Structure formats: C-alpha cells, structure tokens
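Q: I have 101 residues here and want to know how they pack in 3D. Can you give me a structure?
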Amino acid sequence: MLELKLVSGEQLKLVIEGARLEAREVKPERDDAMIDPAHLAHFFSVQTMLRPEEALATSELAAGFSAMELRAWLAELGKLNVAQAVQHVRVLVAGNTEAVS
C-alpha cells in the first residue's frame, strides 16, 4: 500500500508509480500476450461509472503503463466487481491510496 501525504503536483506522479508497483505484482504469462477481452470489457464498464474527469485521469494513468503493466493492472481490476473497481480507481486518481487494499 502506498500512502501519500503530498498535496503538490508530485502527488499524481506518486500515484502513477504506486499503481505501476501494484500492476507489477501480477505477472502475465508472456510479455507479448494480448489483453484479455474480459478484462478490457470490465475496464470499460468501470470507465462508464466514472465522472468525465475521473475517466480522463484513469485513461492518462493507464497510458503511462507498459503493455505488461497495463495487462497486470487490468487483471487486478478484473478481480473486483465493477463497484469495487470504480472505488479503487477513484481512490487512485484522487491521489489518496490509503483506502486501496
């Protein structure tokens, strides 16, 4: 768990790095493997539940991941139901990871 105390522009950078560390905990079988369509569909379901600014921040967060990190993060989100994944993403983009387990 990454705990943030910053309120500056560095906060988002730390959140992205924290999310990358979470994503690295799940290793895909192959580096060139495609994203699981079920994980992608789940992510799109999560995106539709977010406010526009949260969805944009989530897209920017995901764009910063390598392909392997993105697959791992989507796999982690896929373990949660949509409501839990929405809360997880909201906490990450808000820059407060204390509630993320």
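Q: Anything worth noting?
A: Residues 1-9 have pLDDT under 50 and may be disordered. The chain has one domain: 10-94.
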